[in-house]
Amino acid sequence: MPDVLKLALVGCGAIARFHLDGIQACGGKIRVTAAVDPDRGKAERVASETGAQVFSSLAEAVAGGDFDAVDLMVPHDLHEAVAVKAFQAGKHVLLEKPMAPTLEACDRILASAKAAGTVFMVAENAQYWPEVVKAKELIDAGAIGEILTARATYAAEFDAYWFKEKNAWRYEKGRTGGGITIDGGSHWIRPLRMWMGEIEEVVGVLDHPLKQMEGESLVRALFRFRSGKIATFDAMMVTTVLGPDASWRVVGTKGEIVIEGGFGGGIKLFDVANRGGKLMAEPQGYGKSFGPELDDFAEAVLRGKPLEAGPDYALGELRTALAIYRSAESRQWEKVWG
Ligand SMILES: NC(=O)c1ccc[n+]([C@@H]2O[C@H](COP(=O)([O-])OP(=O)(O)OC[C@H]3O[C@@H](n4cnc5c(N)ncnc54)[C@H](O)[C@@H]3O)[C@@H](O)[C@H]2O)c1
Question: Can you give the residue range of the structural domain that contains 16?
Answer without folding.
Answer: 5-123
